[in-house]
Amino acid sequence: MLARIEAIERWFMRLGIAGGVATLAITLVIVVDVIARFLFNAPIHGANELCELLLVAMVFVGLAAAQQGRQNYAIDMATRHLPTAIQALLELLAHIFCLLLVGTLAWFSTRQGLDSFRRGEAGFGVIPFPIWPARFVLTIGLWLLAVQFVCDILRHLMGQPRAITTAGSHE
Q1: 105 vs 68, 90, 92, 108, 134, CA distance in Å?
Q2: pLDDT tens, 94-145?
Q3: Does residue 27 contact residue 35 with C-beta atoms inside 8 Å?
Q4: For residue 162, which of 83, 103, 95 has the smallest C-alpha distance?
Q5: Cβ pair 162, 95 in contact under 8 A
Q6: What is the largest CA-CA distance in the chain?
Q7: Closest CA to 10 of 68, 79, 57
Q8: 24-39 pLDDT, tens per residue?
Q9: DSSP assignment of the chain, as one string?
Q10: Is the dihedral of CA 4, 157, 104, 141 positive or negative?
Q11: Of 4, 63, 73, 74, which sits most exposed with the smallest number of CB within 10 A?
């Protein structure tokens, strides 16, 4: 079971790299658009909308990898002074709560994405840029985050939770 969890987590880390690629793509689109505006007085139509889609990908595709790498914000001023067993229990309960919350968001996001696709929802601009792809990327990112929370919960139940690292330290 642990081997399957680790395989899923390795795949999520690769998806985190995809978020970095989206960042690079945003930069390239903006640079090319600025150059086209400056040199040829011809902006790239749809560049802003494409950057919005890439921004959604950058954030939501990397959520599961950030959770797995314990790179999300955590405020532990009260819990860090508790016994280790209580800290572990509270972390497990937090993962369960987050799974329920993210699962609910993913469910409603799925319904909204499908509705957007059926309606052919598009933004208002020079070109009618479709909005539904961003909704699907967001939905996929939320479902992947939910799966990562399941992996975190299973790790806790198997007695193999990821080590808590502090800022600047590495596992």
Answers
A1: 19, 22, 20, 5, 15
A2: 999 999 999 999 999 999 999 999 999 988 877 888 999 999 999 999 999 9
A3: no
A4: 95
A5: no
A6: 65
A7: 68
A8: 999 999 999 999 999 9
A9: -HHHHHHHHHHHHHHHHHHHHHHHHHHHHHHHHHHHHHHHS---TTHHHHHHHHHHHHHHTTHHHHHHTT-S----TTGGGS-HHHHHHHHHHHHHHHHHHHHHHHHHHHHHHHHHHHHT-B--SSS--BSHHHHHHHHHHHHHHHHHHHHHHHHHHTT-PPPP--TT---
A10: negative
A11: 73
Enter the tokens of residue 78.
Answer: 């009260």
Identity at 96, one-letter amino acid code: I
Separation between Cα atoms, residue 121 and residue 129, nearest integer Å? 9
Both tokens of residue 73?
């914000």
